[in-house]
Amino acid sequence: MRMPTSKPGGARFRGPTSSHEYNQNEDDKYLELVELYQQSNKNLQDLQEAHRIVVAENAALQAYIQMLTDRIGTLEQKITDMQGALPYPPTFFQTSFVQQMATHYPNISQDNSDSTLRADMDTEYRYATLPMIAQIPKTYVKNDLTGEIIVPDELQVSLGRSNSGGTVVDTNVYEAFNGSDDTFWERVVTYDFSSCPDQEDVIMEITLPSHLVNNLNINTIVINPHPERGVQVANVEYLYEDAWQQIPGFQQNDLATISTALYSPRKKWYFPQVPVQKIRITLVQKTPIDLGGKKAFILGAQEIGVYLTLFEQGGGMVLTPFEMTGLYNIESVEHVFLNRGAFSFDQKLDNQLEGNIFDYEILKEEIDGTLTPLSGREWSGQFAQRLWVRTMLYPDPYNGVNPCLTAVRLNYSR
Ligand SMILES: [Ca+2]
To answer: Which of 29, 114, 234, 276 is deepest in the core (most CB within 10 A)?
Structure first.
Protein backbone atom coordinates (compact mmCIF):
# COMPACT_ATOMS: atom_id res chain seq x y z
CA MET A 1 0.00 0.00 0.00
CA ARG A 2 1.40 3.44 -0.87
CA MET A 3 1.73 6.24 1.68
CA PRO A 4 -0.52 9.34 1.54
CA THR A 5 0.72 12.15 -0.71
CA SER A 6 -1.83 14.87 0.04
CA LYS A 7 -0.41 17.88 1.84
CA PRO A 8 -1.95 20.21 4.36
CA GLY A 9 -4.50 22.54 2.76
CA GLY A 10 -2.09 25.34 1.92
CA ALA A 11 -4.23 27.88 3.83
CA ARG A 12 -1.74 30.31 5.29
CA PHE A 13 -2.45 32.05 8.57
CA ARG A 14 -4.01 35.44 7.78
CA GLY A 15 -3.00 35.10 4.13
CA PRO A 16 -4.90 34.53 0.88
CA THR A 17 -5.62 30.92 0.00
CA SER A 18 -4.80 29.51 -3.39
CA SER A 19 -7.88 27.96 -4.97
CA HIS A 20 -5.64 25.88 -7.21
CA GLU A 21 -3.80 24.38 -4.23
CA TYR A 22 -7.07 23.95 -2.39
CA ASN A 23 -8.67 22.08 -5.29
CA GLN A 24 -5.58 20.00 -5.86
CA ASN A 25 -5.59 19.12 -2.19
CA GLU A 26 -9.24 18.06 -2.31
CA ASP A 27 -8.55 15.90 -5.37
CA ASP A 28 -5.59 14.25 -3.70
CA LYS A 29 -7.62 13.49 -0.61
CA TYR A 30 -10.40 12.03 -2.69
CA LEU A 31 -8.05 9.75 -4.63
CA GLU A 32 -6.41 8.62 -1.44
CA LEU A 33 -9.74 7.81 0.14
CA VAL A 34 -10.67 5.75 -2.93
CA GLU A 35 -7.41 3.89 -2.65
CA LEU A 36 -7.93 3.32 1.07
CA TYR A 37 -11.39 1.91 0.46
CA GLN A 38 -10.08 -0.37 -2.27
CA GLN A 39 -7.27 -1.61 -0.04
CA SER A 40 -9.68 -2.11 2.83
CA ASN A 41 -12.02 -4.13 0.61
CA LYS A 42 -9.14 -6.24 -0.60
CA ASN A 43 -8.05 -6.90 2.99
CA LEU A 44 -11.58 -7.87 3.90
CA GLN A 45 -11.80 -10.29 0.97
CA ASP A 46 -8.45 -11.85 1.87
CA LEU A 47 -9.57 -12.23 5.47
CA GLN A 48 -12.87 -13.78 4.43
CA GLU A 49 -11.08 -16.26 2.18
CA ALA A 50 -8.57 -17.18 4.90
CA HIS A 51 -11.40 -17.53 7.39
CA ARG A 52 -13.37 -19.82 5.08
CA ILE A 53 -10.32 -22.03 4.54
CA VAL A 54 -9.74 -22.29 8.29
CA VAL A 55 -13.41 -23.08 8.92
CA ALA A 56 -13.38 -25.79 6.25
CA GLU A 57 -10.17 -27.41 7.47
CA ASN A 58 -11.40 -27.19 11.06
CA ALA A 59 -14.74 -28.82 10.23
CA ALA A 60 -12.90 -31.62 8.42
CA LEU A 61 -10.58 -32.19 11.36
CA GLN A 62 -13.47 -32.18 13.85
CA ALA A 63 -15.25 -34.87 11.84
CA TYR A 64 -12.02 -36.84 11.61
CA ILE A 65 -11.37 -36.58 15.36
CA GLN A 66 -14.92 -37.71 16.07
CA MET A 67 -14.41 -40.75 13.87
CA LEU A 68 -11.07 -41.55 15.59
CA THR A 69 -12.67 -41.20 19.03
CA ASP A 70 -15.45 -43.61 18.06
CA ARG A 71 -12.84 -45.98 16.70
CA ILE A 72 -10.87 -45.94 19.97
CA GLY A 73 -14.07 -46.73 21.87
CA THR A 74 -14.65 -49.76 19.63
CA LEU A 75 -11.05 -50.92 20.05
CA GLU A 76 -11.20 -50.59 23.83
CA GLN A 77 -14.35 -52.70 23.85
CA LYS A 78 -12.64 -55.33 21.69
CA ILE A 79 -9.63 -55.47 24.01
CA THR A 80 -11.91 -55.90 27.01
CA ASP A 81 -13.73 -58.71 25.19
CA MET A 82 -10.43 -60.39 24.28
CA GLN A 83 -9.18 -60.23 27.86
CA GLY A 84 -12.38 -61.86 28.99
CA ALA A 85 -12.10 -64.65 26.43
CA LEU A 86 -9.62 -67.43 27.27
CA PRO A 87 -7.58 -69.09 25.98
CA TYR A 88 -5.78 -66.42 23.95
CA PRO A 89 -5.66 -66.96 20.21
CA PRO A 90 -2.58 -69.03 19.34
CA THR A 91 -1.09 -66.61 16.81
CA PHE A 92 -0.31 -62.95 17.16
CA PHE A 93 0.94 -60.33 14.80
CA GLN A 94 2.80 -57.06 14.84
CA THR A 95 2.64 -54.49 12.10
CA SER A 96 5.35 -51.91 11.43
CA PHE A 97 4.46 -49.01 9.17
CA VAL A 98 6.69 -46.90 6.96
CA GLN A 99 7.17 -44.35 9.76
CA GLN A 100 9.16 -47.01 11.67
CA MET A 101 11.22 -48.19 8.70
CA ALA A 102 14.87 -47.28 8.15
CA THR A 103 17.35 -47.33 5.31
CA HIS A 104 20.42 -47.47 7.56
CA TYR A 105 21.64 -50.22 9.89
CA PRO A 106 21.77 -49.34 13.60
CA ASN A 107 25.48 -50.26 13.65
CA ILE A 108 27.54 -47.72 11.68
CA SER A 109 30.30 -50.05 10.53
CA GLN A 110 27.75 -52.58 9.29
CA ASP A 111 25.95 -49.75 7.54
CA ASN A 112 29.16 -48.62 5.84
CA SER A 113 29.99 -52.15 4.71
CA ASP A 114 26.69 -52.69 2.87
CA SER A 115 26.80 -50.88 -0.46
CA THR A 116 23.31 -51.96 -1.54
CA LEU A 117 21.24 -49.05 -2.91
CA ARG A 118 18.79 -47.81 -0.29
CA ALA A 119 15.07 -47.44 -0.88
CA ASP A 120 13.48 -43.99 -1.07
CA MET A 121 11.24 -43.25 1.93
CA ASP A 122 8.22 -40.99 1.69
CA THR A 123 6.45 -40.69 5.04
CA GLU A 124 4.19 -37.91 3.73
CA TYR A 125 2.58 -40.30 1.22
CA ARG A 126 3.32 -43.37 3.39
CA TYR A 127 5.62 -45.71 1.42
CA ALA A 128 9.16 -46.89 0.74
CA THR A 129 10.03 -47.50 -2.89
CA LEU A 130 12.91 -47.83 -5.37
CA PRO A 131 15.54 -45.08 -5.38
CA MET A 132 14.22 -42.26 -7.55
CA ILE A 133 16.28 -40.88 -10.43
CA ALA A 134 14.03 -38.10 -11.70
CA GLN A 135 10.47 -36.79 -11.54
CA ILE A 136 9.36 -34.83 -14.59
CA PRO A 137 6.31 -32.58 -14.07
CA LYS A 138 3.64 -32.64 -16.79
CA THR A 139 1.55 -29.66 -15.70
CA TYR A 140 4.24 -27.03 -15.29
CA VAL A 141 7.81 -26.17 -16.22
CA LYS A 142 10.33 -25.41 -13.53
CA ASN A 143 13.41 -23.31 -14.14
CA ASP A 144 16.16 -25.33 -12.39
CA LEU A 145 18.29 -22.24 -11.81
CA THR A 146 15.72 -19.78 -10.45
CA GLY A 147 13.13 -22.26 -9.14
CA GLU A 148 10.48 -20.26 -11.01
CA ILE A 149 7.43 -22.28 -12.05
CA ILE A 150 5.51 -21.59 -15.23
CA VAL A 151 2.09 -23.12 -15.83
CA PRO A 152 1.67 -23.14 -19.64
CA ASP A 153 -1.53 -21.88 -21.26
CA GLU A 154 -1.98 -25.25 -22.96
CA LEU A 155 -2.86 -26.80 -19.62
CA GLN A 156 -6.66 -26.88 -19.62
CA VAL A 157 -8.88 -27.70 -16.67
CA SER A 158 -12.65 -27.88 -16.93
CA LEU A 159 -14.95 -28.36 -13.96
CA GLY A 160 -18.24 -30.25 -14.07
CA ARG A 161 -20.72 -31.38 -11.41
CA SER A 162 -23.64 -33.78 -10.92
CA ASN A 163 -25.86 -31.36 -8.98
CA SER A 164 -27.42 -28.38 -10.67
CA GLY A 165 -28.68 -26.23 -7.76
CA GLY A 166 -26.85 -24.03 -5.31
CA THR A 167 -24.44 -21.18 -5.89
CA VAL A 168 -20.97 -22.16 -7.08
CA VAL A 169 -17.95 -19.96 -6.47
CA ASP A 170 -14.47 -21.04 -7.56
CA THR A 171 -11.09 -19.54 -6.93
CA ASN A 172 -8.51 -19.91 -9.72
CA VAL A 173 -8.30 -23.63 -10.48
CA TYR A 174 -4.80 -23.31 -11.94
CA GLU A 175 -3.56 -22.53 -8.42
CA ALA A 176 -3.83 -26.30 -7.89
CA PHE A 177 -1.36 -27.03 -10.71
CA ASN A 178 1.56 -24.74 -9.93
CA GLY A 179 3.74 -27.04 -7.84
CA SER A 180 3.06 -25.17 -4.58
CA ASP A 181 1.06 -26.30 -1.53
CA ASP A 182 0.70 -22.68 -0.43
CA THR A 183 -1.78 -21.89 -3.16
CA PHE A 184 -5.25 -23.46 -3.31
CA TRP A 185 -8.05 -23.99 -5.67
CA GLU A 186 -11.25 -23.92 -3.66
CA ARG A 187 -14.87 -24.37 -4.70
CA VAL A 188 -17.66 -23.31 -2.36
CA VAL A 189 -21.18 -24.44 -3.20
CA THR A 190 -23.85 -22.88 -1.01
CA TYR A 191 -27.47 -23.92 -0.55
CA ASP A 192 -30.34 -22.79 1.62
CA PHE A 193 -30.84 -25.17 4.54
CA SER A 194 -34.12 -26.40 3.08
CA SER A 195 -32.70 -27.30 -0.34
CA CYS A 196 -29.33 -28.73 0.68
CA PRO A 197 -28.51 -32.09 -1.00
CA ASP A 198 -26.65 -34.98 0.72
CA GLN A 199 -23.46 -34.43 -1.19
CA GLU A 200 -21.73 -32.27 -3.77
CA ASP A 201 -19.17 -33.43 -6.30
CA VAL A 202 -16.83 -31.84 -8.77
CA ILE A 203 -15.47 -33.60 -11.84
CA MET A 204 -12.23 -32.13 -13.12
CA GLU A 205 -11.09 -32.84 -16.63
CA ILE A 206 -7.45 -32.00 -17.17
CA THR A 207 -5.80 -31.74 -20.58
CA LEU A 208 -2.04 -31.84 -20.26
CA PRO A 209 0.11 -29.56 -22.41
CA SER A 210 1.31 -31.61 -25.39
CA HIS A 211 4.56 -29.88 -26.25
CA LEU A 212 5.81 -29.33 -22.72
CA VAL A 213 8.06 -32.37 -22.89
CA ASN A 214 9.01 -34.78 -25.62
CA ASN A 215 6.49 -37.48 -24.75
CA LEU A 216 3.09 -37.90 -23.07
CA ASN A 217 4.11 -40.78 -20.82
CA ILE A 218 3.04 -40.52 -17.21
CA ASN A 219 3.15 -42.95 -14.27
CA THR A 220 2.49 -40.74 -11.23
CA ILE A 221 -0.48 -38.72 -9.98
CA VAL A 222 -0.47 -36.77 -6.73
CA ILE A 223 -3.52 -35.19 -5.10
CA ASN A 224 -3.29 -33.02 -1.99
CA PRO A 225 -7.00 -32.46 -1.40
CA HIS A 226 -8.64 -29.55 0.37
CA PRO A 227 -9.92 -29.88 3.02
CA GLU A 228 -7.38 -32.61 3.74
CA ARG A 229 -9.12 -35.67 5.25
CA GLY A 230 -12.36 -33.76 4.79
CA VAL A 231 -13.15 -34.58 1.17
CA GLN A 232 -13.18 -37.83 -0.78
CA VAL A 233 -11.08 -38.48 -3.85
CA ALA A 234 -13.78 -40.65 -5.40
CA ASN A 235 -12.08 -41.51 -8.69
CA VAL A 236 -9.01 -40.87 -10.82
CA GLU A 237 -9.19 -41.88 -14.48
CA TYR A 238 -7.22 -41.36 -17.65
CA LEU A 239 -8.29 -41.33 -21.25
CA TYR A 240 -6.44 -44.09 -23.04
CA GLU A 241 -7.31 -45.52 -26.45
CA ASP A 242 -10.51 -43.43 -26.49
CA ALA A 243 -11.85 -44.83 -23.21
CA TRP A 244 -11.88 -43.51 -19.66
CA GLN A 245 -10.19 -46.02 -17.38
CA GLN A 246 -9.61 -45.89 -13.65
CA ILE A 247 -5.88 -45.69 -12.96
CA PRO A 248 -4.43 -49.11 -12.01
CA GLY A 249 -4.15 -49.41 -8.22
CA PHE A 250 -6.57 -46.55 -7.52
CA GLN A 251 -7.89 -48.47 -4.50
CA GLN A 252 -4.85 -48.25 -2.27
CA ASN A 253 -4.07 -51.25 -0.11
CA ASP A 254 -3.03 -49.34 2.97
CA LEU A 255 -3.97 -51.72 5.81
CA ALA A 256 -4.97 -48.83 8.06
CA THR A 257 -8.13 -49.43 10.05
CA ILE A 258 -9.23 -45.99 8.91
CA SER A 259 -10.41 -45.80 5.35
CA THR A 260 -8.32 -43.38 3.33
CA ALA A 261 -11.03 -43.58 0.69
CA LEU A 262 -13.60 -41.91 2.97
CA TYR A 263 -11.20 -39.47 4.63
CA SER A 264 -8.74 -38.76 1.84
CA PRO A 265 -5.34 -37.67 3.06
CA ARG A 266 -2.79 -36.50 0.49
CA LYS A 267 -2.27 -39.38 -1.92
CA LYS A 268 0.22 -40.44 -4.54
CA TRP A 269 -0.37 -43.16 -7.11
CA TYR A 270 2.31 -44.96 -9.09
CA PHE A 271 1.15 -47.11 -12.00
CA PRO A 272 2.58 -48.48 -15.29
CA GLN A 273 3.83 -45.84 -17.72
CA VAL A 274 1.16 -44.89 -20.23
CA PRO A 275 0.87 -42.16 -22.88
CA VAL A 276 -2.17 -40.07 -21.90
CA GLN A 277 -3.16 -36.47 -22.30
CA LYS A 278 -6.46 -36.32 -20.43
CA ILE A 279 -7.07 -37.07 -16.77
CA ARG A 280 -10.36 -36.98 -14.88
CA ILE A 281 -10.59 -36.55 -11.12
CA THR A 282 -13.80 -36.77 -9.08
CA LEU A 283 -13.97 -35.20 -5.64
CA VAL A 284 -16.98 -35.69 -3.36
CA GLN A 285 -17.94 -33.68 -0.28
CA LYS A 286 -20.53 -35.22 2.06
CA THR A 287 -20.19 -32.90 5.04
CA PRO A 288 -21.49 -29.38 4.43
CA ILE A 289 -20.56 -26.69 6.92
CA ASP A 290 -22.64 -23.76 8.16
CA LEU A 291 -21.45 -20.57 6.53
CA GLY A 292 -23.21 -17.24 6.77
CA GLY A 293 -26.67 -18.76 7.36
CA LYS A 294 -26.28 -21.25 4.49
CA LYS A 295 -25.03 -24.79 4.03
CA ALA A 296 -21.72 -24.81 2.18
CA PHE A 297 -19.88 -27.69 0.53
CA ILE A 298 -16.16 -27.02 0.25
CA LEU A 299 -14.09 -28.93 -2.27
CA GLY A 300 -10.69 -28.24 -3.71
CA ALA A 301 -7.01 -29.03 -3.81
CA GLN A 302 -3.78 -27.56 -2.62
CA GLU A 303 -2.01 -29.29 -5.43
CA ILE A 304 -2.60 -31.83 -8.17
CA GLY A 305 0.54 -33.18 -9.79
CA VAL A 306 1.08 -35.38 -12.83
CA TYR A 307 4.56 -36.75 -13.41
CA LEU A 308 6.73 -39.22 -15.19
CA THR A 309 8.96 -40.68 -12.48
CA LEU A 310 12.09 -42.69 -13.25
CA PHE A 311 13.61 -45.17 -10.80
CA GLU A 312 16.78 -47.17 -10.34
CA GLN A 313 16.12 -50.57 -11.89
CA GLY A 314 18.61 -52.35 -9.60
CA GLY A 315 16.27 -52.17 -6.62
CA GLY A 316 16.45 -50.68 -3.13
CA MET A 317 16.79 -51.94 0.43
CA VAL A 318 14.67 -51.04 3.46
CA LEU A 319 14.78 -52.27 7.08
CA THR A 320 11.68 -52.75 9.26
CA PRO A 321 12.02 -53.23 13.04
CA PHE A 322 9.85 -55.27 15.43
CA GLU A 323 9.99 -55.10 19.24
CA MET A 324 9.45 -58.57 20.69
CA THR A 325 9.08 -60.00 24.21
CA GLY A 326 9.59 -63.45 25.73
CA LEU A 327 9.92 -66.67 23.82
CA TYR A 328 8.18 -66.86 20.45
CA ASN A 329 8.06 -68.68 17.10
CA ILE A 330 8.08 -66.67 13.88
CA GLU A 331 5.29 -67.97 11.65
CA SER A 332 5.36 -65.72 8.59
CA VAL A 333 6.07 -62.25 7.22
CA GLU A 334 3.66 -60.25 5.06
CA HIS A 335 4.56 -57.26 2.89
CA VAL A 336 1.81 -54.71 2.25
CA PHE A 337 2.09 -52.60 -0.90
CA LEU A 338 0.11 -49.39 -1.34
CA ASN A 339 -0.01 -49.87 -5.13
CA ARG A 340 -0.61 -53.64 -5.10
CA GLY A 341 -3.38 -53.14 -7.65
CA ALA A 342 -0.92 -51.64 -10.16
CA PHE A 343 1.30 -54.75 -10.28
CA SER A 344 1.15 -57.10 -13.26
CA PHE A 345 0.44 -60.02 -10.91
CA ASP A 346 -3.20 -60.94 -10.42
CA GLN A 347 -4.51 -60.30 -6.89
CA LYS A 348 -4.85 -64.06 -6.45
CA LEU A 349 -1.14 -64.58 -7.12
CA ASP A 350 0.24 -62.86 -4.03
CA ASN A 351 2.57 -65.82 -3.53
CA GLN A 352 4.45 -64.82 -6.69
CA LEU A 353 5.38 -61.39 -5.40
CA GLU A 354 8.23 -62.78 -3.34
CA GLY A 355 11.17 -63.30 -5.69
CA ASN A 356 9.71 -60.91 -8.30
CA ILE A 357 8.70 -57.71 -6.53
CA PHE A 358 10.67 -58.25 -3.34
CA ASP A 359 12.96 -60.52 -1.35
CA TYR A 360 13.42 -60.48 2.39
CA GLU A 361 15.29 -61.99 5.30
CA ILE A 362 14.80 -61.73 9.06
CA LEU A 363 17.66 -60.50 11.22
CA LYS A 364 18.07 -60.17 14.96
CA GLU A 365 19.77 -57.21 16.60
CA GLU A 366 22.86 -57.99 18.70
CA ILE A 367 23.94 -55.93 21.72
CA ASP A 368 26.26 -53.73 19.61
CA GLY A 369 23.47 -53.06 17.13
CA THR A 370 24.80 -55.44 14.49
CA LEU A 371 22.07 -57.30 12.60
CA THR A 372 22.64 -61.00 11.94
CA PRO A 373 20.37 -63.13 9.71
CA LEU A 374 18.26 -65.83 11.33
CA SER A 375 18.36 -69.28 9.76
CA GLY A 376 15.03 -71.02 9.18
CA ARG A 377 15.70 -73.18 12.21
CA GLU A 378 16.06 -70.08 14.39
CA TRP A 379 12.49 -68.98 13.60
CA SER A 380 11.33 -71.30 16.38
CA GLY A 381 12.12 -70.73 20.04
CA GLN A 382 13.46 -67.26 19.33
CA PHE A 383 13.87 -64.70 22.11
CA ALA A 384 15.70 -61.76 20.44
CA GLN A 385 14.10 -58.54 21.69
CA ARG A 386 14.42 -56.70 18.42
CA LEU A 387 13.99 -58.23 14.99
CA TRP A 388 14.46 -56.52 11.66
CA VAL A 389 13.05 -57.52 8.29
CA ARG A 390 15.49 -56.57 5.53
CA THR A 391 13.53 -56.14 2.32
CA MET A 392 14.86 -55.66 -1.21
CA LEU A 393 12.35 -54.01 -3.53
CA TYR A 394 12.46 -54.57 -7.31
CA PRO A 395 10.56 -53.07 -10.25
CA ASP A 396 7.71 -55.25 -11.52
CA PRO A 397 9.46 -57.46 -14.14
CA TYR A 398 6.48 -57.23 -16.55
CA ASN A 399 5.19 -53.65 -16.33
CA GLY A 400 8.05 -51.78 -14.63
CA VAL A 401 5.96 -50.44 -11.72
CA ASN A 402 7.89 -49.43 -8.61
CA PRO A 403 6.44 -51.22 -5.54
CA CYS A 404 5.35 -48.87 -2.71
CA LEU A 405 5.84 -50.74 0.56
CA THR A 406 3.65 -49.24 3.29
CA ALA A 407 3.82 -51.86 6.06
CA VAL A 408 5.35 -55.18 7.07
CA ARG A 409 3.50 -57.62 9.31
CA LEU A 410 5.16 -60.30 11.41
CA ASN A 411 3.01 -63.26 12.48
CA TYR A 412 4.23 -65.26 15.48
CA SER A 413 3.05 -67.76 18.06
CA ARG A 414 3.90 -68.47 21.69
CA1 LIG B 1 -1.01 -25.06 -5.52
So the answer is: 276
* Domain 132-311 fold: Jelly Rolls (2.60.120)
Q: How far is the CA of 231 from the centre of ligand 1 (A)?
A: 17
pLDDT tens digits for 334-375?
Answer: 999 999 999 999 989 999 999 999 999 999 999 999 999 999
Measured in Å, residue 223 CA sits from the centre of ligand 1 at 10
The CA 220 to ligand 1 mean position distance, Å, reads: 17
Fold classification of 89-122+313-413 is: Jelly Rolls (2.60.120)
**Interval between CA 305 and ligand 1 midpoint (Å):** 9
The Å distance, Cα 371 to ligand 1 centre, comes to 44
> How far, in Å, are 6, 7, 123, 315 from residue 17 at the CA level?
16, 14, 73, 86
Q: How far is the CA of 301 from the centre of ligand 1 (A)?
A: 7
Q: In the chain, what are the domain boundaries?
A: 89-122+313-413, 132-311
Q: What is the pLDDT of residue 327?
A: 93
- 414 compared with 86, residue with greater pLDDT: 414
